[in-house]
Design brief:
alpha/beta, Rossmann fold, 3 domains
Length: 329
Amino acid sequence: MQRHLVLSIVRVALDLKLFDILGGSSSPLHVDELSSKIGAEEKLLGIIKETGTNEFTSSTTSNNLLSPESQAGIYHNFDVLGPAYQALPDFLAAANYQSPTETHKAAFQKAWNTDLPLWTWFQSRPKETAQFNRFMLAQRSSTPNCFNFFPIEEECGNWPAEKPVFVDIGGASGQQCIEFRRRFPNIKGRVIFQDLPGEIEHAISQGLPEGVEAIVHDFYTPQIIKGAKIYYLRAILHDHADDKARLILKNIMQAMDSESLILLDEMVLPNEGVDWFATQTDLTMLAAFGSMERTEKQWGELLEGVGLRVRRVVTYTWAFRLSVIVAGL
């Protein structure tokens, strides 16, 4: 009932650098010393571990919050998503408790009084964008890579060198393409990631390894790379209600040939008995995008509804049910 209060207090502690001070001390600090270091009244200090009367040290929780990635997650969830969560009850009431049918008309827009989709809104918010990217990078680095579980070499081993073999659509800084080249140096073919101009410019400025290409592309428009073996999308369609998800898929389909595959790296929830942690992500998608995390049945209906055939689903984590959905024409 009071998790929102805990998040608020952790947010205050981050602003005060409280966890950094405690984590950097080899011995417990008296509340007077803490108060003088951070400039806060003694009565406000409390999430940390008490070792004696008015004496505190860092706890396991506060030590975990020392990492910039954890701190970025707190700021993102409190500063950006927090207002959307607060707006969700009124948003759903105004919609007569019906699921949103238009992508990017969600509680987020109501909370921030904007017509902009979240990703467009981020473009004028560099601080919030940096926090989100750091948080996402940490999340992805702590979960297995789908390449561990999908037979890339079996599918792509004899691919012609002149044809595109792997196209990451909405690939941000190109990390999956870089990882593809690192893991599979003997697979021939072009390896390409696509995103909007800002992301591509940033990725190029950071330097790209040989054999990885960056191309500007908006996935709401027809796919410009024709006849690739794999068109890969990671956590793209869960940001979109079915209308826009169908558009994105159809834009890819017109570029595919009989050998092409679409790989969707997404959560695939069971049709019943969903883990509570996954349901939180589902509700976040509702508040931020007016979308959802889909069940296996919903994924099948979405893909088959545009004329794709689901070849197989490979699930590689069990709480979040991260999975690779393999689809072809």
